[in-house]
Amino acid sequence: MNLAESVNRRIRNLVFNLNYKILTSLRSSELLNLLISLKVLSIYKKLARTKNLVLEDKRCFVSIWFYMSKMFSIGTKIKFNNPIKISLILIIIKSYYIFLVTMETKITFLLNEEIIEENLNPSVVLLDFLRKDKHLTGTKEVCKEGDCGACAVLLGELTDSGISYKVINSCLYPIQKVNGKHVVTIEGLNQETLSPVQESFMDEGASQCGFCTPGFIISATGYLINTESYNYDKVINSVAGNICRCTGYNSIKKSLKRLENINNIDSIKTLIDEKVLPEYFLDVELKLKSIRVKKEKVKSNSNVQFISGGTDLFVQKPDIILESDVKFIHEEVPRRIELKDNSIIISGSATIDMLNSFFTSKIKSKQFDKLFKMFASLPIRNSATIAGNIVNASPIADLTISLLALNAKLELRNSKGEKRFLLLKDFYKGYKTLDKKNDEIIENIIIPKLD
Ligand SMILES: Cc1cc2nc3c(=O)[nH]c(=O)nc-3n(C[C@H](O)[C@H](O)[C@H](O)COP(=O)(O)OP(=O)(O)OC[C@H]3O[C@@H](n4cnc5c(N)ncnc54)[C@H](O)[C@@H]3O)c2cc1C
Ligand code: FES
Ligand code: FES
């Protein structure tokens, strides 16, 4: 716990303990004014969150403070001659202020060519940051539920073998998860001339209103980055998460077919030579290595909201998450899937697409291939986790049934670090009722020895 958190907690305890005393000492008009003042603060807090305001602007806070003192002195004619009352009121204001400030965290990442370093609410979705803060409006907002792909961006991450890029839906992606990574928007693919992907869309008339086009270009470019030789079925599958409402898919398919004419697609370097990617991509690895990501511990309490892929949470309750204390599962448990003693160990932060790749490459099983293809779309599979699918406990969840058939076991860990194991079948107690405490996370999912 850092100093600010500890001060915050102490002040909050103090305030709660003395709350009763203050409230009983206030007259009804004073009470009303206190409530109004706190409401003003909470509206400001909400605005600060949703508009990504950083509380560096102390003037704003001071003006609210001023307003509050006015409410007390003018509205109720209180004379500030009672030191206990004054200090308690100051404590309330101060605790609100610290509460607001500690909800933000420093986020550092590469946005196209530019290194971004800002204090932000970690739960703000990347799409809002791109459009509202950075005015990168090429990334479109349509469904905001992961269904249409208009908000697709590329996300690059350093790996042992260079940078790995995947397509994600920025509308469901909390900004905290881009820390230390490379975000590429449609603006970041633009060059002096059109890229071959953009050109093929233009030549085939694959864009009418144009709202879906940036998402399609991002997905098709993501496909080219992740493949060494062109395959028509695979490029079509890569845009399965993109919806076009007006052009008609024939011209889009034709433009994707034309991508087979790009000669060299086997590395970032050749994609730059082919003008699929701008030249600055050559420097990205070095820039990412220069970024220092500071891991900030978020307040830990029993009401903390765990976020993993966010593909369910940011559809169900985005506003509540903006207001909540959050913890990101990938910071608690590194993403990995491994074979150990003939069991498959899937960490609590491993994504659906990682499991797909694992089954294809390590187990050489194609049994799951059909299932994974039907699971949402590639951008969702790139973010959504297996543990999230389990905890979601939706009766129509696709993975749970297979994991139950495979007799999977869960390893749970609580905030004190205590672990326990239980069979997945015992995890479900009833409809959306789980054998899981609030502070417990799924650290690993274990699929026992396979024949
Ligand atoms: C467009 C779209 C299509 C979808 N299609 C499908 C589909 O075809 N099939 C399907 O089954 N689902 C589908 N889903 C639902 C959802 O994506 C999945 O259930 C996904 O696996 C949820 O994982 P997540 O990591 O995104 O969860 P999150 O949204 O991060 O979290 C969901 C819940 O799980 C909890 N949680 C997550 N990880 C852990 C952990 N390690 N320990 C403890 N608690 C944890 C969170 O606290 C939260 O309560 C779809 C969703 C969208 C938006
Ligand atoms: S806006 Fe539709 S998927 Fe994000
Ligand atoms: S061009 Fe209009 S939605 Fe695709």
CATH topology name of one domain:
Uridine Diphospho-n-acetylenolpyruvylglucosamine Reductase, domain 3
Bound molecules: flavin-adenine dinucleotide, FE2/S2 (inorganic) cluster
Radius of gyration (Å): 25 Å
**H/I helix tally:** 20
Please give the CATH architecture of one domain. 2-Layer Sandwich
Overall average residue pLDDT: 85
The coarse silhouette is: globular
Indicate the CATH class of one domain: Alpha Beta
Number of strands: 14
Distance between the termini: 47 Å
* Beta-strand content estimate: 15-25%
Helix content class: 40-55%
Major β-sheet strand ordering = 2-1-5-3-4
Please give a structural write-up.
The chain is an alpha+beta fold. Among the domains are: 3-102; 196-277, Orthogonal Bundle (DNA polymerase, domain 1), CATH 1.10.150; 333-447, Uridine Diphospho-n-acetylenolpyruvylglucosamine Reductase, domain 3, CATH 3.30.465. It is built from 20 helices and 14 strands. It has a 5-stranded mixed sheet with strand order 2-1-5-3-4. The chain has a 5-stranded antiparallel sheet with strand order 8-9-14-10-11. Strands 6-7 form a two-stranded parallel sheet. A hairpin with a 2-residue loop joins strand 3 and strand 4. Helix 1 packs across helix 4, helix 2 (28-50) runs antiparallel to helix 3 (58-76) and helix 6 packs across helix 9 (249-258). The longest helix is centred in the N-terminal third of the chain and has 23 residues, at 3-25. Mean pLDDT is 85; it is low at 52-59. The site of flavin-adenine dinucleotide has 29 residues, from strand 6, helix 12, helix 17, helix 18 and strand 14.
